[in-house]
Design goal:
With 919 residues, this protein is of the alpha+beta class. It is built from 16 helices and 52 strands. Strands 31-32-35-38-39-40-41-42 form an eight-stranded parallel barrel. Strands 4, 6, 7, 9, 12, 13 and 15 form a seven-stranded antiparallel beta sheet that branches.
Amino acid sequence: MRQAVGSGAPWRGRRTRTVLLVGVCLGVPLVGVSLLGSCRQSTSRAATTTQPSSPSGVYNIPPLTETAYAGTLQPGWNDEGWSERELKDPGPAKLRMANMGGWMLHKTGIQGEFGGLALRYRAPSGFGDFLEVRLDSEGETLFPRVRVDASHVARREGDWVQLFVPLEQLNPEKVPFTRIVIRAYKKVSNDWVELDQVGLTAPGGMTPAEGTSLVQQSPQPGTAARVIVEPMELAYDNGLQEGWEDHGWSERELKGPTPAKLRMGNMGGWMLRKTGLQGEYGGLTLRYRAPSDFGDFLEVRLDSESETLFPRVRLSDTYVTARDGDWTQVFVPMDELNPEKKAFTQLVLRAYKKVGNEQVELNQVGLARLVTPAAVMQQQAPPDAASVGGGRVAFGDAKATKVVVDCAASSHPISPLIYGIAFNNLRELKDSHQWELGATARRWGGNPTTRYNWKLGNVWNTANDYFFRNIVLGTSPQYTYDTFLQSNLQRGMQSALTVPIIGWVAKDSTSVSFPKSLFGVQQKMDPDVTEAGNGISPSGDALTPPLPTQTSVEAPPAFIHEWVRTIREKDKTRGRSVHMYILDNEPMLWNTTHRDVHPEPATYDELLERTIAYGTAVRQADPDAVIAGPAEWGWTNYYNSAADLAPGGNKKDRKAHGNMPLLAWYLKKLHEHEKQTGTRLLDVVDVHFYPQGEGIGFEERGATDPDTSARRIRSTRALWDPKYKDESWIDDKIELIPRIKRWIAENYPGRGLSIGEYNFGATGHMSGGLAQAEALGRFAEQNLTSAFLFTYPPYRSPAFWAFRAYRNFDGKGGRFQDNFVPSKFDKESDTQGMSLFASRSDDGKRLVAIALNLEPDSARNAQVELRGCGNVANARVLGYAGEPSGFSERKSFLQSGSNVQVMLPPWSITVLDLTLTRR
């Protein structure tokens, strides 16, 4: 459409610094550092602190699908038990649970898949944690007894507590049961305990309620900010880390990058040693997986070469910060491990009781510290990003988001040509960063290429863009189309070449279409070549153009045939240089852009006739050519010809062609032509896309106020979202890519689709960078054949780094992989403020995802579940939020197995580079 014319982190090892979730006590948000002790109210030792109240409305639980009691005993359920109790309908059940009192609810024939046991109760505040729940049956099965603690609290509402106990804890072997048993596991007073809800839920678990987050909740008055744990000195991280030595007495396997495997029967153990440990550490963190029948069995301590005796700490639910399948993450505060703050050199893990000889796996062991999420965000915010709209400060809570990357779902290869750019004739020999973007292809295109004379080699006509002048196309007279092709070949890039089909090309490098000597002074005159006018009279009327021969010579199909044949002859010694031929540029705008040689608006029939004539010339000269067209500019000409939209046109041209949209008709006729002649003239449907909203802009230009920035980012939805109504004069649901794919399927199956030009403006601002990153992800998702940004972004601008996110995020060739993997958010509303695009290598061992936080003021705490992908053996997280230096190592917290959790700053691009092992 347009053409430029006129005048490193200190961590070593395989994983970047990883932030581990400690802000939850088995799922319940922690209120502050001072409340770590509240997580340690163990089932195996007396509580030493008072359990804090959870904020109201923290977690949602699945709906009840098998209700036993809800204000009254439900049909089919029988009241059994041994406590004194009152069941008065309707109302809560009242039980006296002194002397280990309890209640049983019985029903035969319980069937279905359940997520857990839900119950709501109210008890005197002095009772503390006192409840134990289990299932039972008529058989001899012994079901686990689960003591209710903070991990099971979904929400508190006044004196009432909503509990959720996962069925995997109550019934890990999934055997039939007929009873729900609730009892006191310690002595309490004889006061009433009330229960107004008992039942089994649908599959699923606790999820953060709207507006809350697992990591960062709004602090309650008088409490500290919630915390996470940041590793400071990892000893083992799917591999022994630099400076650490492997000691111990257990039989073990250490094969990186994999978990360490130990046999800990007969009180086996492991020691990790490093001299010169310095710094203030918050505690010890480790992640392990052990057979379920081991129960609590691990003990940890520190050690040194001196005679200091360090405390031994036995691990239990007290220290668990997260569970993911069979994996358990724990954190033990240094206050317990080293209360006297003595020097130490060793981390010691051992079994404190006899266990079986099966292997215990540990994939992370190290020392850590406590930080608040706000501190993490502050560390991640680039100090030099404000000028480009990055480095935003988050307001309020981080929004909790869950997204599933589904490797088991249908996927497709990603065409490398979606990372294309256009060349800029005025910058080509001045810039070098166009080669640093990681672009895979370049397009020779834009309005002037419609009038490019390949025989002269270096001239074209600037058309309506710039005073209808014939000019030398670049800053060097020696630069030609062949220079363009050779430059791309030398750098391993593919080339898309626009070939004129308008029938006229520039005859020299000096002629102008509306010279002052013929037309007089015009509304605007070229300040450099005063003879050249813009073809508009001082009164604002369009001047009648001269004969085309004023500036041009004829260029019939034979002219193009000879050009393509010349290119292919040169290719015999250098390899194929043109990978796509594009049939001209925006023909339905010729009557404005090139009105000096084509003043009449193009019609349906003219477009088809020229496509057949010139497409045949290309095909005959290069039988293996990939031919693209019609390179139409936008919304109106996807549907209508220029004749339809001209004054008095009244869409008569469209009506005369069956009232079919122009592109659909064009495809239908070319399909018929191929059936009749056996000659395929179109391989790829090429259209252009420019958001039309006010202030969006082009290249560096464009407004960056909050409203325009938000609309710029949203405008990408017109590419794919059937629900998005364009926020411009179009005022319609564009869904461009799906729409054109439907037209292809209906009228000429098998054609590819290219977005031959697009631009979202404000390339130097984060809103422009995010729009660019979003578009590249959608191109991969929607399986485009190719796409070419017009032209290319400024050096180290946000749009520059958007390309690098997919093509070279680490400066060492790290890139989006070759196969697209679908992903889906748990909540549809999350798709309005965040995107995640995932890719996988051919061998399935590497997964790279690009996460975009599209909101300017809110951070995102994103949990990414990898379904059917394998387990994470190694992870790097790199982020960009507007800093000129580009991507840098970011903090994350990696939960074991197949889950990764990351904090996304406002207006940011985050790369998850994951190495996977099969399960």
